[in-house]
Amino acid sequence: MFVETACRVCGWSDPALPEDLWRGGTPLHVICDCCGSESGVEDISWRTALRARKAWLDAGAQWFAPEERPADWDLTAQLVRLRS
Questions:
Q1: Is 9 in contact with 32 (CB distance < 8 Å)?
Q2: Any idea where the domains of the chain sit in the sequence?
Q3: Which of 30, 34, 65, 79 is deepest in the core (most CB within 10 A)?
Q4: Are strands 3-4 and 26-27 parallel, antiparallel or unpaired?
């Protein structure tokens, strides 16, 4: 069964505590600590994920849960992992 742990909107996945966002094509409705999107809502299609990503980036790519942001967080490296 395929499990997605990276957010489709921003690409975030906590390497220490990866969380299942989608399992076998089914969204688990988890809120991303980085961008605040909910799996199965803002990322239900690649088009909606791209729209949510643009809105998040246009707003300054602020962390939804800033206390979870790693000190060495690199937005560019995170975005490279995303499917365009």
A1: yes
A2: 3-80
A3: 34
A4: unpaired
